Structures are given as structure tokens and as C-alpha cells.
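User: Can you predict the 3D structure for this chain?
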Amino acid sequence: MQEPRQLQARGSVYNATFSDRRSPIAYGYAETLPIYFNQAPLFQVSTGGGGFGGGGGEGGGGGATGRPSGRGTLTDPDIVQAMPQAEPAPQRSPGGEQLTDEQRLQQGPFFTPPALRPRVVLRFASDEKNLLISGMLAGGSELANAPAVVDVPVGQGHVVMFANNPMWRHQTQGSFFLLFNAALNYDHLNVGRDRPTDQRRQGPRAEDKN
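Assistant: Here is the predicted structure, written as C-alpha cells:
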């Protein structure tokens, strides 16, 4: 989890999109889902270990008014004088959290095997302009594309984390089944999870047949 810098999202309803529809938690839902969110928690999911976080939004950035270098106004190019401007990092598509061979080598013993990585099931809308449905929102760039529902393998089970409150005051009936699906399929939450190529050659897993 990360601390919001400029985000103000108090008790409002926001658009979210299912980024992994193969997860049993997403069963029965359409592509998008309005969800209730009240400022926290703001999740940040790493792709495989320390140092290469897959931040909440595309930039993980300095908020709506921040400048990385602290120089100039928002309309000035944010570059150091006499230094070439670095190419921007390519944006990842939601759910496309892959590491390069170089990143795996750098992480060494801190590299998280694919079977143990968090699985982002639901994300807030990737476009800040399409986030808000009802309520208030400021500094929405920190919330855009942030994970809303995360399934984390732990030992022989799973921990499912919700950024939204799926059963808030009996008013969020539309998100009730996020919790019900997780409970009803507690022993099959690995269904649909991506596997390394060498494991795919071994044939389907038992849980994928259920």
C-alpha cells in the first residue's frame, strides 16, 4: 500500500474495469463495475520483487500539479538544461505486468515466482477523466489504474484484498458478489492464472478443470 499525496476521494463511487476476467472473483460480472471507495487503501502491486513496482497509475507520479525536477511551470518542458531529454518509459497495459530478463537477474533471490505473484482482478478506470461517477475527486491521477481487488497466494491459500468496501452499509449490492465469489471459490482461486511456458507443456492443472 502507498500513501496518497494529493488524492482526495472521500466516500464516492468510481468506475472500475476487470483486468483478469478469468479469475473466479470476476464470475458473473460485465467488463466494468462501479465501486465505492473512501480515500484508502491505495494498493501498489509489484511485478516480481523489490525495486520494480507496478504503481497504482501509469506514472505512479507526482500528482496533478507536481514536477519531478521542481523547475518551471506545468507548461514548461521538465528537462535539465543542456541535457538530452530521456525517452519516456513505455506504458504498460493493465494486467500486462512482465519482467525483462535483466530485471529478473537484478532481483536475484528477491524475484517472486509467477505462481506466488499478486493477481490484480479489478482496477480503477485507467483514464482519470472517466473515474468519477458520483461524489468528489481531486488528484485522480493517483487513483487511475490502481488495483481495486488483488488476489495474493499465501501458503496453501489466498488473501484477497479489496480497496473498495464491497459490503458498505448494505448500499453496495453490486459489489457483494466480489466477496461471495471469493468465498464460494476459495479452493479454486488459481483458475485461469497465467503459468510459465514450461508448466503449460505439462497439461492443464486440476483446478482449471473445475
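Confidence is low (pLDDT under 50) at residues 50-64. The two ends are 33 Å apart (CA to CA).
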